[in-house]
Design a protein that fits this description.
Chain lengths: 502, 283
Amino acid sequence: MATAQENPLLEGLQLRRMPDPCILVIFGASGDLTKRKLFPALYSLAYRRLLPDNFSVVGIARTEETDDEFRQRMKEAVQQFGRDEFRDDVWESLADGVRYLAADFSDSKGLDRLVDVVNELDDERKTGGNRLYYLAIPPSAFETVVEAMGKRRKAEGWRRLIVEKPFGHDLESARHLNSVIEHHFEEREVFRIDHYLGKETVQNMLALRFANGIFEPIWNRQFVDHVQITVAESIGIESRASYYEQAGAIRDIFQNHMLQLLAITAMEPPIDFTADSVRNEKVKVLRAIHTPGPKSVVRGQYGRGYIEGEEVAGYREEEGVDPQSMTETYVAAKLYVDNWRWADTPFYVRMGKRLPRRETTIAIEFKRAPHPPFEELAAEGLQPNVLLVHVQPDEGVSLAIGAKVPGQGLTIRTVHMDFLYGGAFRTGLPEAYERLILDAMLGDATLFTRIDEVEEQWSLVDAIVAAWVRDRPAFPNYPAGTWGPPSADELLRRDGRSWRTH
Amino acid sequence: MADTLTSIRDIERELTSLRAEPGAETPFQRTSVMTHMAWVPPEWVEAAEDVLSGLAERHPSRTVVLLPQPEEDDGLDGYVEVDAYPVGEGRSICTETIRIRLKGKRASAPASVVQPLLLPDLPTFLRWRGLPPFGAPEFEGLIDVVDRLIVDSTEWPDLPESYRGLAQIFDRVVVSDIAWARTSRWRPMLASLWPDIAGVQRIRVTGTAAQAHLLAGWLRSRLKHTVELEHDPADRLHGVDIDGEPAPFPPGDPPSGADVLSEELDTFARDRIYEDAVRGTLQ
């Protein structure tokens, strides 16, 4: 398109960047992710006219299904899980370009058939050879697919690869996986998803820090006493035993979501919001994280307990789980970011399953006021100010401040000043996958993890796990529906602190 | 609706008391993004209420509706409403709507009535229904206290002559025109006809008079040459002919009234292209 200099009519028009026409190829299309997240996200994008013309989807999985059956199932999924009202015309426009292929993508015949289907669709819908491959498959199947798609590269158009977590299971496997990818795809063509980065509230952390003059000057060791990051789930492992037994909380949450939340909280201001500037700053934080000693990491596994009044099974009783399993469903750690800004400021992080509620929060606890001139306070002292970022649910930010209780004397009570996302912006927050799929189509990798970040994350996990081999904690060590094992409380109590309780 | 309130102090007191939900320990939370003011002469009341009802929930704000009634005896009648919308678990946020009847002389100095009611540090938008009385004290006073004036020139008589007064105030207040916003699907489409459209001599617009004049003004001001306008009246923008050739129809559905206003409320910067187009209508 001509620029505004050449074409004066373009001046002042707010033109949305529209992705090129392309085909999204979903490997593992019969899985839950496609049904619960990808198709509802695609529908929402179509609903807002954000998809390019002729946008097409090819789903591939082993399950026998016809195009029509697949479309029907996806239609129902959109109706069930979508966030927008269901409109037939929007769905039809999307479904028009949807194909399904029942094939085994671990054998080359199946992949040849896929290439034929995709090429045919490309000719039919004029998508110019642009392909977005979405790997929603177990890592064991990555290699074959990546290699096959790499070898069958078309001369025209762009190709991009979206990789779901887990990216490897340790540093070595991640590097191996990457060497396979690197052989066929350039780094700028690879989009490693950490869907937490697609969440509005996580991005709002960047806005909060770098669009407001008041926070950044106090966002450092001088004013911050410590940081607490919580990723709590009340659900158990659902039907993912075979994956979870191998992964545990450390690979499932800590390696990716938790470390990304920490990196965004601790990073230096990037010079701009381009993919490399942001990721350069994040990787510096990850590199600066000091490997915690064994005493600074706590593992837990849930036993029987109660969630929402209902008795639930212990981890070892879940279907598909080894009755003697030593897999952790809870991790708490004290981490230090060894740099000028954060030296000696602890970052306490905790994550786990079957905790009392679903909550992801980042709490910045500031140092207390140095000297309270109010006598009434002598007994309990002043409470510190806490800036609390609610990532989910109840997305928003609140600041705990001390205020005078009306009446005689000077009694101080902590009150919350709340900013609720849903309160100020009533448009409904987009799902993380909408943003991420669209960014990948546009080739913008800002909200995806780069290989050096992944490697730093794994080195830290490897170091922690190496120390675990030597001892066998007495699992289970916390009942479902509680905030983790007592040793996690002890971890903070030793430092004269405690976990936030609400 | 609550009792009639006759002073700003009464209105403020009523707002505070309504924010505490009856029987609840914690007051409603107020998250505001702006003060939204509307000047609604009697003939516009019905239309204005329709749009407002869709708006409050999307833009949590304090809405001050000014209902001028200059023929009545001097006085001020205020009505306050607080609506709560649930957000998250067990929490509600509230939006406030203040309706004030400005009777008699009170209708000529509305700025002094609304100033105590503006939310501090947040932008103030003024939606003026109908053609503003450019130069009249009630209008001049109000545009000096607001950040943005929103009009819909579709509501105006005598186009394009009525644009003359508007063009005079661009340096004093940022102006949004809903009629202009309603051409927003067409402008990118017309721009895509470049370079063929560069030498256009004559356009024929089937739509409202405001849309026709603004599109012609836009082409004149951007292309920097005269463009003749032929206007075929219709209640919405149906078609544009470029030198006798119909331009392709832009994709998508036209947005609803509340949608258009809602989008204008998210915009803060001065729209120079619109200002040029308004001046262009008078060429």
